[in-house]
Amino acid sequence: MRALLLALPLLLANTAGDPETIPAPVRAMLDAAFASGNEGEVATIVKYARNAAPEHAETINKMASDWRAERRRKNEKRIREAGLFDLMKGRAELGGYRTTGNTNNIGLSAVVELRREGLEWRHKLKVQGDYQESLGVVTRERYLASYEPNWKFDERAYIYGSALYENDRFLGFTDRFSLSAGAGYSAVKKPKLRLDLEVGPAFRHTAFVNGNIESYPAARGSVDFDWKVTPGITLRQNASAYFQEANSTITSKSALLARLIGPLSAQLSYTLQYESKPPTGRDTTDTTSRAALVVDF
Hints:
Oligomer: single chain
Largest sheet: 12 strands, antiparallel, barrel
Radius of gyration: 27 Å
CATH class of the largest domain: Mainly Beta
Protein backbone atom coordinates (compact mmCIF):
# COMPACT_ATOMS: atom_id res chain seq x y z
CA MET A 1 0.00 0.00 0.00
CA ARG A 2 2.80 2.37 0.94
CA ALA A 3 4.44 1.69 -2.43
CA LEU A 4 1.18 2.52 -4.23
CA LEU A 5 0.86 5.81 -2.35
CA LEU A 6 4.41 6.73 -3.27
CA ALA A 7 3.75 5.88 -6.93
CA LEU A 8 0.41 7.73 -7.10
CA PRO A 9 1.87 11.15 -8.01
CA LEU A 10 3.78 9.55 -10.88
CA LEU A 11 0.63 7.76 -12.09
CA LEU A 12 -1.36 11.00 -11.96
CA ALA A 13 1.38 12.83 -13.82
CA ASN A 14 1.30 10.21 -16.56
CA THR A 15 -2.48 10.30 -16.93
CA ALA A 16 -2.45 14.12 -16.92
CA GLY A 17 -0.58 13.97 -20.20
CA ASP A 18 -3.13 11.64 -21.79
CA PRO A 19 -5.96 13.38 -23.73
CA GLU A 20 -8.27 10.48 -22.84
CA THR A 21 -8.13 11.47 -19.15
CA ILE A 22 -9.49 14.99 -19.78
CA PRO A 23 -13.04 15.27 -18.38
CA ALA A 24 -15.60 14.25 -21.00
CA PRO A 25 -17.43 17.63 -21.20
CA VAL A 26 -14.13 19.51 -21.63
CA ARG A 27 -12.91 17.03 -24.24
CA ALA A 28 -16.17 17.29 -26.17
CA MET A 29 -15.90 21.08 -26.15
CA LEU A 30 -12.33 20.93 -27.49
CA ASP A 31 -13.24 18.41 -30.20
CA ALA A 32 -16.12 20.63 -31.36
CA ALA A 33 -13.81 23.66 -31.55
CA PHE A 34 -11.17 21.74 -33.53
CA ALA A 35 -13.85 20.45 -35.91
CA SER A 36 -15.06 24.01 -36.59
CA GLY A 37 -11.69 24.94 -38.11
CA ASN A 38 -12.03 28.46 -36.72
CA GLU A 39 -8.77 29.72 -35.18
CA GLY A 40 -10.54 32.31 -33.01
CA GLU A 41 -13.02 29.79 -31.60
CA VAL A 42 -10.23 27.30 -30.86
CA ALA A 43 -8.23 29.93 -28.97
CA THR A 44 -11.28 30.87 -26.88
CA ILE A 45 -12.27 27.28 -26.07
CA VAL A 46 -8.68 26.32 -25.18
CA LYS A 47 -8.53 29.24 -22.76
CA TYR A 48 -11.69 28.17 -20.93
CA ALA A 49 -10.76 24.48 -21.05
CA ARG A 50 -7.49 25.23 -19.22
CA ASN A 51 -9.45 27.09 -16.55
CA ALA A 52 -11.95 24.26 -16.20
CA ALA A 53 -9.27 21.53 -16.00
CA PRO A 54 -6.02 23.21 -14.86
CA GLU A 55 -4.40 19.85 -14.11
CA HIS A 56 -4.66 19.09 -17.86
CA ALA A 57 -3.50 22.53 -19.08
CA GLU A 58 -0.27 21.18 -20.57
CA THR A 59 -2.12 18.44 -22.45
CA ILE A 60 -4.72 20.92 -23.73
CA ASN A 61 -1.96 23.24 -24.97
CA LYS A 62 -0.31 20.33 -26.78
CA MET A 63 -3.59 19.31 -28.41
CA ALA A 64 -4.07 22.86 -29.67
CA SER A 65 -0.49 23.04 -30.97
CA ASP A 66 -0.86 19.70 -32.76
CA TRP A 67 -4.14 20.88 -34.31
CA ARG A 68 -2.54 24.10 -35.60
CA ALA A 69 0.49 22.23 -36.97
CA GLU A 70 -1.72 19.71 -38.81
CA ARG A 71 -3.94 22.48 -40.13
CA ARG A 72 -0.90 24.39 -41.39
CA ARG A 73 0.51 21.24 -43.04
CA LYS A 74 -2.78 20.52 -44.86
CA ASN A 75 -3.08 24.14 -46.00
CA GLU A 76 0.49 24.18 -47.38
CA LYS A 77 -0.16 20.92 -49.21
CA ARG A 78 -3.37 22.33 -50.71
CA ILE A 79 -1.54 25.44 -51.91
CA ARG A 80 1.35 23.48 -53.44
CA GLU A 81 -1.03 21.21 -55.35
CA ALA A 82 -3.37 24.04 -56.45
CA GLY A 83 -3.76 24.96 -60.10
CA LEU A 84 -3.21 28.43 -61.54
CA PHE A 85 -6.77 29.64 -60.90
CA ASP A 86 -7.55 27.60 -57.76
CA LEU A 87 -6.16 30.25 -55.39
CA MET A 88 -7.42 33.24 -57.34
CA LYS A 89 -9.66 35.69 -55.49
CA GLY A 90 -11.06 38.92 -56.76
CA ARG A 91 -13.53 41.74 -56.53
CA ALA A 92 -15.50 43.70 -59.10
CA GLU A 93 -16.74 47.23 -58.49
CA LEU A 94 -19.32 49.18 -60.47
CA GLY A 95 -20.64 52.56 -59.45
CA GLY A 96 -20.92 56.28 -59.98
CA TYR A 97 -18.72 59.18 -59.01
CA ARG A 98 -18.60 62.95 -58.68
CA THR A 99 -15.40 64.81 -59.60
CA THR A 100 -13.98 68.21 -58.68
CA GLY A 101 -10.90 69.89 -60.07
CA ASN A 102 -10.23 69.68 -63.81
CA THR A 103 -13.78 68.38 -64.33
CA ASN A 104 -17.04 68.73 -62.40
CA ASN A 105 -19.30 65.93 -63.56
CA ILE A 106 -21.03 62.73 -62.62
CA GLY A 107 -20.07 59.50 -64.36
CA LEU A 108 -19.48 55.76 -64.16
CA SER A 109 -16.56 53.75 -62.90
CA ALA A 110 -15.62 50.06 -63.12
CA VAL A 111 -12.82 48.26 -61.29
CA VAL A 112 -11.69 44.62 -61.34
CA GLU A 113 -9.02 43.36 -58.93
CA LEU A 114 -7.50 39.85 -58.85
CA ARG A 115 -5.20 38.41 -56.18
CA ARG A 116 -3.44 35.04 -55.95
CA GLU A 117 -1.75 34.15 -52.65
CA GLY A 118 0.78 31.29 -52.70
CA LEU A 119 3.34 30.09 -50.19
CA GLU A 120 6.17 32.20 -51.62
CA TRP A 121 4.53 34.32 -54.31
CA ARG A 122 1.65 36.79 -54.30
CA HIS A 123 0.26 38.30 -57.51
CA LYS A 124 -2.02 41.36 -57.71
CA LEU A 125 -3.72 42.64 -60.88
CA LYS A 126 -5.98 45.68 -61.21
CA VAL A 127 -7.88 47.17 -64.15
CA GLN A 128 -9.91 50.38 -63.81
CA GLY A 129 -11.89 52.59 -66.16
CA ASP A 130 -13.71 55.90 -65.62
CA TYR A 131 -15.86 57.46 -68.32
CA GLN A 132 -18.10 60.53 -68.49
CA GLU A 133 -20.01 61.96 -71.42
CA SER A 134 -22.07 65.15 -71.21
CA LEU A 135 -24.21 66.41 -74.11
CA GLY A 136 -22.28 64.18 -76.49
CA VAL A 137 -18.91 65.46 -75.31
CA VAL A 138 -16.51 63.27 -73.35
CA THR A 139 -15.54 65.14 -70.20
CA ARG A 140 -13.61 62.43 -68.35
CA GLU A 141 -11.83 59.36 -69.61
CA ARG A 142 -9.32 57.59 -67.43
CA TYR A 143 -7.91 54.08 -67.76
CA LEU A 144 -5.51 52.28 -65.46
CA ALA A 145 -3.91 48.82 -65.36
CA SER A 146 -1.39 47.55 -62.82
CA TYR A 147 0.39 44.31 -61.99
CA GLU A 148 2.42 43.60 -58.85
CA PRO A 149 4.24 40.34 -58.07
CA ASN A 150 5.56 39.81 -54.52
CA TRP A 151 8.19 37.26 -53.46
CA LYS A 152 7.72 36.48 -49.75
CA PHE A 153 11.11 35.47 -48.36
CA ASP A 154 10.00 35.91 -44.75
CA GLU A 155 6.82 35.69 -42.66
CA ARG A 156 6.40 39.45 -43.07
CA ALA A 157 9.07 40.75 -45.48
CA TYR A 158 8.91 40.49 -49.28
CA ILE A 159 10.38 41.84 -52.51
CA TYR A 160 7.88 43.55 -54.79
CA GLY A 161 7.73 44.48 -58.45
CA SER A 162 5.25 46.98 -59.85
CA ALA A 163 4.13 47.89 -63.37
CA LEU A 164 1.53 50.64 -63.81
CA TYR A 165 -0.07 52.06 -66.97
CA GLU A 166 -2.29 55.16 -66.94
CA ASN A 167 -4.16 57.11 -69.59
CA ASP A 168 -5.86 60.36 -68.57
CA ARG A 169 -5.84 63.21 -71.08
CA PHE A 170 -7.83 65.40 -68.67
CA LEU A 171 -4.84 65.27 -66.33
CA GLY A 172 -2.64 66.12 -69.30
CA PHE A 173 -1.12 62.83 -70.49
CA THR A 174 -2.08 60.18 -73.01
CA ASP A 175 0.24 57.46 -71.73
CA ARG A 176 2.21 57.07 -68.51
CA PHE A 177 4.23 53.97 -67.64
CA SER A 178 5.67 53.49 -64.13
CA LEU A 179 8.00 50.63 -63.22
CA SER A 180 9.31 49.94 -59.73
CA ALA A 181 10.93 47.24 -57.59
CA GLY A 182 11.85 47.29 -53.93
CA ALA A 183 11.18 46.01 -50.42
CA GLY A 184 7.85 45.41 -48.75
CA TYR A 185 6.96 44.66 -45.14
CA SER A 186 3.71 43.55 -43.50
CA ALA A 187 3.89 45.69 -40.36
CA VAL A 188 0.54 44.33 -39.12
CA LYS A 189 -0.66 40.90 -40.18
CA LYS A 190 -3.80 39.82 -38.34
CA PRO A 191 -7.08 38.24 -39.48
CA LYS A 192 -8.94 41.55 -39.01
CA LEU A 193 -6.12 44.06 -39.46
CA ARG A 194 -3.43 44.37 -42.13
CA LEU A 195 -0.84 47.03 -42.90
CA ASP A 196 1.64 46.66 -45.79
CA LEU A 197 4.44 49.14 -46.49
CA GLU A 198 6.55 49.31 -49.66
CA VAL A 199 9.44 51.49 -50.82
CA GLY A 200 11.85 51.32 -53.75
CA PRO A 201 13.32 53.03 -56.83
CA ALA A 202 11.18 53.57 -59.92
CA PHE A 203 11.24 54.77 -63.51
CA ARG A 204 8.47 56.76 -65.24
CA HIS A 205 7.82 57.49 -68.90
CA THR A 206 5.11 60.05 -69.73
CA ALA A 207 3.66 61.15 -73.06
CA PHE A 208 1.75 64.42 -72.64
CA VAL A 209 -1.20 65.65 -74.69
CA ASN A 210 0.91 68.56 -75.98
CA GLY A 211 3.38 66.12 -77.56
CA ASN A 212 6.13 66.38 -74.93
CA ILE A 213 7.71 63.19 -73.64
CA GLU A 214 9.50 62.81 -70.32
CA SER A 215 11.45 59.85 -68.88
CA TYR A 216 12.87 60.17 -65.38
CA PRO A 217 14.02 57.98 -62.49
CA ALA A 218 11.85 58.26 -59.39
CA ALA A 219 11.25 56.90 -55.91
CA ARG A 220 8.07 55.01 -55.01
CA GLY A 221 6.36 54.36 -51.70
CA SER A 222 2.98 52.85 -50.84
CA VAL A 223 0.75 52.06 -47.87
CA ASP A 224 -2.07 49.47 -47.90
CA PHE A 225 -4.30 49.35 -44.81
CA ASP A 226 -7.32 47.06 -44.24
CA TRP A 227 -9.34 46.99 -41.02
CA LYS A 228 -12.35 44.70 -40.58
CA VAL A 229 -14.11 46.76 -37.91
CA THR A 230 -17.03 44.32 -37.61
CA PRO A 231 -18.05 41.23 -39.62
CA GLY A 232 -19.99 43.56 -41.93
CA ILE A 233 -17.91 46.77 -41.95
CA THR A 234 -14.43 47.21 -43.49
CA LEU A 235 -12.23 50.29 -43.73
CA ARG A 236 -9.53 50.50 -46.43
CA GLN A 237 -6.83 53.06 -47.07
CA ASN A 238 -4.51 52.74 -50.07
CA ALA A 239 -1.93 55.39 -50.89
CA SER A 240 1.05 55.54 -53.23
CA ALA A 241 3.54 58.24 -54.21
CA TYR A 242 6.06 58.69 -57.01
CA PHE A 243 8.67 61.38 -56.37
CA GLN A 244 10.73 62.63 -59.29
CA GLU A 245 12.40 65.78 -60.55
CA ALA A 246 9.89 66.64 -63.26
CA ASN A 247 6.50 65.77 -61.78
CA SER A 248 5.63 63.94 -58.58
CA THR A 249 2.34 62.09 -58.06
CA ILE A 250 0.48 61.23 -54.88
CA THR A 251 -2.64 59.05 -55.01
CA SER A 252 -4.84 58.18 -52.05
CA LYS A 253 -8.07 56.19 -51.79
CA SER A 254 -10.16 55.90 -48.62
CA ALA A 255 -13.05 53.44 -48.70
CA LEU A 256 -15.81 52.22 -46.38
CA LEU A 257 -17.46 48.90 -47.27
CA ALA A 258 -20.68 47.59 -45.75
CA ARG A 259 -21.70 43.98 -46.35
CA LEU A 260 -25.20 43.73 -47.83
CA ILE A 261 -25.82 40.06 -48.56
CA GLY A 262 -23.48 37.19 -49.39
CA PRO A 263 -20.57 38.47 -51.51
CA LEU A 264 -22.29 41.81 -52.26
CA SER A 265 -21.18 45.00 -50.49
CA ALA A 266 -21.90 48.71 -50.76
CA GLN A 267 -18.88 51.00 -50.92
CA LEU A 268 -18.32 54.72 -50.40
CA SER A 269 -14.86 55.95 -51.40
CA TYR A 270 -12.90 59.14 -51.81
CA THR A 271 -9.87 59.31 -54.12
CA LEU A 272 -7.35 62.13 -54.34
CA GLN A 273 -4.71 62.47 -57.05
CA TYR A 274 -2.08 65.19 -56.84
CA GLU A 275 0.32 66.12 -59.66
CA SER A 276 3.05 68.54 -58.55
CA LYS A 277 3.75 69.97 -62.03
CA PRO A 278 0.82 69.34 -64.39
CA PRO A 279 0.73 70.80 -67.91
CA THR A 280 -0.24 74.46 -68.23
CA GLY A 281 -3.92 75.02 -67.62
CA ARG A 282 -4.40 71.87 -65.52
CA ASP A 283 -5.16 71.78 -61.80
CA THR A 284 -2.72 70.07 -59.48
CA THR A 285 -5.41 68.11 -57.61
CA ASP A 286 -8.30 65.92 -58.71
CA THR A 287 -10.76 64.36 -56.26
CA THR A 288 -13.27 61.60 -56.91
CA SER A 289 -16.15 60.58 -54.65
CA ARG A 290 -17.73 57.24 -55.51
CA ALA A 291 -20.70 55.15 -54.44
CA ALA A 292 -20.47 51.61 -55.79
CA LEU A 293 -21.59 48.03 -55.47
CA VAL A 294 -18.77 45.52 -54.92
CA VAL A 295 -18.89 41.77 -55.53
CA ASP A 296 -16.23 39.46 -54.03
CA PHE A 297 -15.49 36.24 -55.93
